[in-house]
Design brief:
- The protein has about 180 residues and is α+β, with helices and mostly antiparallel strands.
- The chain is built from seven helices and four strands.
- It has a four-stranded antiparallel β-sheet.
- The longest helix has about 40 residues.
């Protein structure tokens, strides 16, 4: 009787061991697929997409995971393939949360379309822009980085100042230009 119980328990152990091995293998394969998907990027050229807002959403909003952990320079090289952004402005933390009133560089605002307001009685006129948040800690005083720049500095020069910052989050926002700013 004892021998039969030992055989059954050994058999159950082998079955459970096989099941656990399969679960571990499935988990490893799943994580590898998720990481591979996050690392792959498919570029949609503006000529193929045809619409600037859709281009921004396809390349930067829907594939935001690709840019997380990468530098701003990598983002800039991709966006410059088809578009010449009109603005590359810093985004800072609120000076009210810092004991010394400093605005720390927190991210970037990339404008690629005309954002000027239009009369309210016109039909819907949308525009889009890209917002980026960098990985903390925020240790760069925004005023020290951008305000000493001379007038007329190009957008690419402003982007070079941000090239080594690592992206934590990126998204595309749209506005209705009838409301203006």
């Amino acid at each position: 009787m004892f021998g039969i119980l030992c055989i059954i328990s050994i058999y159950n152990y082998k079955i459970l061991s096989m099941i656990m091995k399969r679960i571990i293998l499935l988990t490893v394969v799943s994580f590898a697929a998720i990481i591979a998907r996050a690392q792959s990027f498919h570029y949609y050229p503006l000529k193929e997409v045809g619409d600037t807002i859709e281009y921004l959403k396809l390349n930067f909003d829907k594939q935001a995971d690709y840019f997380v952990g990468r530098t701003f320079d990598e983002f800039w090289q991709i966006i410059r393939r088809d578009i010449t952004p009109t603005k590359c402005n810093p985004r800072g933390t609120s000076p009210y949360i810092d004991p010394h009133g400093i605005m720390w560089l927190q991210g970037a605002y990339i404008e690629c379309m005309d954002m000027s307001g239009v009369p309210a009685d016109t039909c819907l006129v949308q525009a889009a822009y890209v917002l980026i948040r960098f990985k903390p800690p925020y240790k760069t005083d925004m005023h020290d980085l951008f305000y000493p720049l001379p007038c007329g500095v190009t957008v690419d020069t402003r982007a070079k100042l941000l090239c080594n910052y690592v992206i934590e989050e990126i998204w595309v926002s749209t506005i209705d230009r009838r409301r203006g700013w």
